[in-house]
Amino acid sequence: MTPRPASAPVGTVTRGTTNPNRLRRMDRWIAAAHGAELRRAADPLAVDLGYGAAPWTALELLHRLRTAAPRTRVAGVEIDPARVASARPYEREGLVFLRGGFEIPVPGSPVLVRAANVLRQYDEGEVAGVWRRLCARLAPADQAAGSRGGLLVEGTCDEIGRRHVWVALGPEGPRTVTFATRLGSLDRPSDLAERLPKALIHRNVPGEPVHAFLRDFDRAWAAAAPYASYGARQRWIRAVRDLTADWPVTDGPARWRQGEVTVRWGALAPRGW
Fold this sequence. Notes:
This is Methylase. The chain is α/β, with parallel strands linked by helices. It is built from nine helices and eight strands. Helix 1 (24-40) crosses helix 2 (56-68) and helix 6 (209-223) crosses helix 7.
């Protein structure tokens, strides 16, 4: 892969914390939700933006996406040149590492950009601008071909990937918010609030939609307590099913069984967004 002409990378160096399998929940969701888009693309390029101090997440992304779309290629992009240099010995067929930032220094338009734990250190007011910049780099929609275009997945998780919340965006902007967790570690759904992405984490206060959603989710979880005797998965499924009466949940039981629920962005968007 030949990178785009050199320019100053846009962004700042992150902490770089990474662990093997940290992003497995996000990766599996991407493969399920976006696999068809990757399969139909002429050039199914995915970008692991800000992969951190070790290359594990990019290697794992390649492996997981290829289970859904075997022609997928991955470019790991990091702003820190030392991290890029240390990752390059891990390059292989379909995987390269490049220095860059939000400008995404790859040729063409990626079908996927994953930015996990990247915007956490930025100010809330910077998020919309970063989103617009990244969405402008995505492969465009093609209605004639049945394509919705590329996907940006931006979110935050804990250090070992038990709790994760991400926003999925297309070329037109934000689409959905997904909450994902290891159900055995969950006391109540609002525990996920600590992993809300930057656009939402400071909005978990009364009067904001995301606060109301987590409040209703906790109530549904409490009402579903009798299902706990069948396991946390059955309790989660019941609670999410009850949520669908008042919230625009976009997925179904097959994803709920994974400890996930996806809601339309418009229902959770911050006031005045």
